[in-house]
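U., I forgot to send this yesterday:
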Amino acid sequence: MIKSLRFRIRGVPYPHAKATGNIEGRNKWTEAIVAKTEKLQKINGPCLVRVTFRLSREKFHDTNPFGTDLDNLLKRFFDALGRTVFSDAPGKDACVVAIEAAKVLVLNPSESGVDGEIIEMQTANNVIDRARPPSAAPSK
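Result:
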């Protein structure tokens, strides 16, 4: 059976690195992700992650009219999931083999955050690998 985990996390999304503004906000965002996902079922095989970052107007400005970089938002997000739902997976967030990601502007700051889903994928390789003991890796 394929696992699917859905979640909604409210708060101000922060990117992986932040040099200006509310530096402490990034730790608060990481902890919000951990708190909302720590009780979810663990994913330990390949998965697809669908995620929409909901950004308030403060994340869009003259020098960055398209908002915070999506790749940097994903980095902090996946690192936090490495402490929770991906903590049992070899390589932690390396189990993510496909991503569907977006960022949207929300007019009400209380709607800021992230909505997402993690779907465990069944592939020929992971079915074979799960059936084979680790010491029985194929020879080259």
